[in-house]
Amino acid sequence: MTIRAVLFDFSGTLFRLEQDESWLTELTDHDGEPLDIEAQAELMRRMTAPVGQVVELDAEHVHAWQHRDRDPVLHRKVYLEVLKKSGVPHFDQAEALYDRLIDPSQWTPYPDTEAALKAVAERGLKVGVLSNIAFDIRPAFTARGWDAYVDEFVLSFEVGAVKPELEIFRKAVEELGVPATETLMVGDSEEADGGARALGCEFALVDPLPTAERPDALLTALRGFGVA
């Protein structure tokens, strides 16, 4: 087996939306009471869960949830509803929190993200970032100069397909110009990212732990395939 390209997922793999107390201190429930720590943690989990419906939704919002990563309008619509159903009934508060969710500068990279991207690029392998997402994550890389290590960004809202659909993996390997059988997908979701195996890619699973608790999972995954 020869690996000539590596695809990385974004959320929970290279970066994580970490809980920032300053975002949540002013959030209040239906009774005007501040959200407790457990409620805050659950709120962040629901905002970043890669798969699975996180709250009960009506038919209109179920449709928006199912297509949220294809369309920024549907993404905004359903996440504001998720926040409302998750104990943030005030629209202005929900809107402010949502705007942080889609701001790439608010996302925290894992400790070994730069080292992993650099290690793959310096070996002469192609590097892609493949994400189910409804906003442009490139600024999170360009702000740090890491875009120099990435050959292609394949984002669901730009290509109209989402993981685990084969179309998005096929698009990614075509953009990199490397056969699927010589491509490694690294991600935090067996269901979504692991779908790459159906196209013939290798797959490495990482745990979407808080960044402080996962210092070197990316490098460990890459070493398992001899590419770091």
Question: What value does the Rg take, in angstroms?
Answer: 18 Å
What's the SSE pattern? EEHHHHHEHEHEHHEEH
Q: What percent strand?
A: 5-15%
SS-based class = alpha/beta
Q: Helical residue percent?
A: 25-40%
Taking pLDDT < 50 over at least 5 consecutive residues as the criterion, the unreliable ranges are none
Give the total of beta strands. 7
Helical run tally: 10
Would you tell me the overall average pLDDT? 91
- In angstroms, what separates the terminal alpha carbons? 15 Å
> What is the 3D form?
globular
If strands are numbered along the chain, what order do they take across the biggest sheet?
5-4-1-6-7
Instruction: Tell me the major beta sheet.
Output: 5 strands, parallel
